[in-house]
């Protein structure tokens, strides 16, 4: 076994077994489930809530959150069916994750939080910010889907079962196997990011395969209702796609979009330093 492999294994084990030493975790009851969260802490700091993408969990924000924890009290929660939060239910509505976020904010008594979401989390944050427009201090969306139409997803019983079994298969992979796959498929992320990503795949509940994503409103319908300052960190794009993204962002009352050069869907992982610099500039503008 090489030194690099040993370091990867050690890092993955550390991330799988607990949170960073100075962070805490806990649960709240809300919207019919138990919601788990991690928190960097600091009563005198403004609050930033981070909502992860599908199949990730709260600790997948670890490396990014470390860039901001000295200035912000960061809450990284596990969406239902992810991490240590309760699994979804067959009766869940399309807005279940929106109301989960509302419950978390209410139960933790968070005042004017900055809300950031990636992918699935960006959909929840945007819908929440449109529905409860007086609550967010600001909104940050990492690579939200800005297309005019939501992508069609086959949702037959056979397709749902196929997705369930695919999630279960990843549940049964070892952390090291997942880290190795991550390093192979996403080499720009680096070992530390892959080590925080891998354990989340083992905690991802197969019942999330049922899904209601196609029933969520399109971002273009939500944006005119969002009143808080909003930053979109968007994957690199050119030509007609870039123009379409900018047209969608123009629907925001107080928004801006930044296409991060070289980044794909996982903007903060593909181009972390650029994402940090762009977000820092946005946060400074709020002061």
* Strand arrangement across the biggest beta sheet: 1-2-4-3-5-6-7-8
Major pleated sheet = 8 strands, mixed
Radius of gyration: 18 Å
Strands, count: 8
Encode the helix/strand succession as letters.
Answer: HEEEHEHEHEHHHHEHEHH
Class computed from helices, strands and strand pairing: alpha/beta
Q: Which range does the strand content fall in?
A: 15-25%
Characterization of the model:
With 287 residues, the chain is an alpha/beta fold. It is 40% helix and 16% strand. It is built from 11 helices and 8 strands. It has helices at residues 3-17, 62-65, 96-107, 120-131, 157-171, 175-185, 191-203, 219-222, 239-249, 267-270, 272-285; strands at 24-30, 33-39, 47-51, 73-77, 114-118, 138-142, 230-235, 255-260. The chain has an 8-stranded mixed β-sheet, with helices on both faces. A hairpin with a 2-residue loop joins strand 1 and strand 2. Helix 1 crosses helix 7. The longest helix is centred in the N-terminal third of the chain and has 15 residues, at 3-17. The termini are far apart.
